[in-house]
Amino acid sequence: MPHVVREDGSLNDAAIALLHAVSSVDAELIRAARIRPSRSNWLRVPWYRYHRGGAITVGRTIWFTRLWWQRDGRGDGSPASTWYWLLLLAHEVGHLPQAKRYGLNIVGKARYVAAFAWQYGSRAVLLKKDVHDGANLEREAELGRWVLMHLLGPQAAVHPMVAAVAADDLQAVKEWCKIQERVIVKAQVAYRERFLFR
Q: How far is the CA of 185 from the CAs of 16, 27, 182, in angstroms?
């Protein structure tokens, strides 16, 4: 089991605090989310190849592919694996407010999945590059990951914040986020201006 995920599928408190800070997603929305292996849903989605890995958010559940749970993949609890989990989670939690907007019941979930299919399909038909990453819903969700990468830099796996999240040191994460608050806000504004308002 990865350090950031508890036995019940919830995220640890330190991860919630960091993800909230970088993504601006409501902490209670992140707290309510459950992380599950794709083998736990009847469609086994997402269908990414093993070595690529990936995740999909539907409602309040974030489904991670097998790579993320295997000891020879991203499930070994190492600092590098913890960093990769945080990176993908920083993006996936960005989908939680979107899912809430569409509705968390079965009809809302179907509308949400259809909206993604429409955006990807439209981009593909129009021969636009970045069929997946260029979709508006994906760009909106990417804010948290972009900010996290900006903050922790190229040596992120050995950054004290990654260790603090792995140890569920909520106090250390809160203090660091408070110190970095202006930098975080500046990075969020820069991302929105560059990728969302065009």
A: 18, 16, 5
Q: Is 166 within a domain? A: yes
Domain of residue 157, residue span: 13-196
Indicate the pLDDT class of residue 185, thresholds 50, 70 and 90.
Answer: very high
> What are residue 16's phi and psi, to 5 degrees?
-60, -45
Strand partners, 13: none
Closest CA to 3 of 189, 161, 181: 161
4 in any annotated domain: no
- Signed CA dihedral, 45, 144, 97, 79: sign only: positive
> Minimal CA–CA distance to 100: which of 45, 195, 38, 25?
25
Task: Give pTM, 2 decimals.
Answer: 0.90
Query: Is 118 within the bounds of a domain?
Result: yes
In the structure encoding, which two tokens stand for residue 15, read together? Answer: 């991860």
What is the Cα–Cα distance from 18 to 61, expressed in whole angstroms?
A: 19
Token pair for residue 142? 């990417």
Domain count, the chain: 1
Q: Which residue type occupies 118?
A: W
pLDDT digits (tens, 9 = 90+) for 138-159: 999 999 999 999 999 888 889 9
Q: Are 173 and 17 in contact (CB under 8 A)?
A: yes
Task: Report yes or no on 8 lying in a domain.
Answer: no
Query: Phi/psi of residue 114, each to 5°?
Result: -65, -35
